[in-house]
Design brief:
67% of the residues lie in helices and 1% in strands. It is an all-alpha fold and 303 residues long. The N and C termini lie far apart (86 Å).
Length: 303
């Protein structure tokens, strides 16, 4: 049995076995992860010596596990087999898979673009449960976390600048997130996914209300919990984008508020949330312009 004490020895054996049969070995590992959550940290360390091909297979097996239906006997008590209908908590297998995915993508140079496309495609068909996977990836790779318990000091720090928000506004100690954050940013920018994901996440709030609420197929408490989780993920994603995107990205890529509300049918608060960094940039540019054109005060010594 692999443990933290012998993980180095087993990691070399796993690397040798996956060199010839990566799909078989990694499929068994992912299957065990879905059943036992205490394997997550150990397996995350055990994948250290895999080849680049094996890392691609890791992403493939995770994606295959996410799309593979679970046992039909447990489906009625879960939404899409992933989220509990009683308390809106993720199923154990889904939670383990999301945590492992976020940890692996953070630690190893894996191309996880397919996972981002998977999340986007799931949201397009109104499967909101996969927002949990996106939330885990953003939390682990960027250190941006949304918490329901906020202290007064953290709330005051959130109204400050970028440095104050990053230092005093963190809810947990984010470590070694600089390189993973850059990789996440590049994955979103290179594949032009940051704008579609921003819009589709903002649209999910209305989907939750009209899909579950209007049809009266779910309990009101469950709908409220899903709505809150969607709101938290939206704020978290936009916070990450505002930290990593440049002025050019906001000016030339993001649509105006009129287009967001009338064209994409977003709620007004979501449209302003997306456009807030652009407003801040325009305000700062106007402030710099006024300061540069303001008359300079006279020097008393010169008189």
């Amino acid at each position: 049995r692999i443990t933290k004490d012998n993980v180095k020895t087993y990691s070399r054996q796993i690397a040798k076995m996956t060199h010839n049969n990566p799909i078989i070995i990694l499929s068994v590992i992912i299957d065990q992860i879905q059943r036992f959550d205490n394997f997550i940290s150990v397996i995350n360390d055990a994948l250290k010596y895999l080849s680049p091909l094996a890392y691609d297979i890791v992403c493939y097996t995770i994606l295959h596990a996410l799309t593979t239906p679970i046992s039909p006997t447990s489906i009625p008590s879960y939404i899409d087999g992933k989220m509990s209908r009683e308390n809106a908590t993720p199923a154990q297998w889904f939670q383990n898979l999301c945590v492992l995915s976020a940890n692996v993508f953070k630690k190893y140079p894996i191309d996880f673009t397919s996972i981002l496309y998977y999340i986007y495609d799931q949201l397009r068909v109104e499967k909101t449960c996969d927002l949990y996977l996106l939330r885990e990836i953003i939390t682990k790779m960027s250190g941006v976390e949304i918490s329901s318990t906020v202290t007064r000091e953290q709330l005051e720090a959130a109204s400050g600048g970028e440095l104050l928000r990053s230092e005093a506004g963190q809810f947990t100690a984010a470590r070694n997130v600089k390189k993973p954050s850059i990789r996440l940013k590049e994955a979103l920018l290179d594949n032009h996914l940051y704008l579609p994901l921003s819009i589709i996440i903002a649209q999910q709030r209305s989907c939750i209300i009209f899909k579950f609420g209007a049809q009266r197929i779910e309990h009101l408490k469950l709908i409220g919990s899903l709505y809150d989780q969607c709101q938290d993920t939206m704020v978290q994603f936009f916070t990450f984008l505002s930290n990593v995107l440049t002025t050019e990205n906001f000016h030339h890529k993001f649509p105006s508020i009129d287009d967001l509300v009338l064209g994409f049918h977003l709620q007004v608060d979501a449209a302003f949330q997306i456009s807030r960094p652009l407003f801040n940039l325009n305000i700062q540019a106007k402030f710099d312009e006024l300061r540069s054109t303001a008359p300079k005060p006279l020097n008393k010594n010169a008189l």
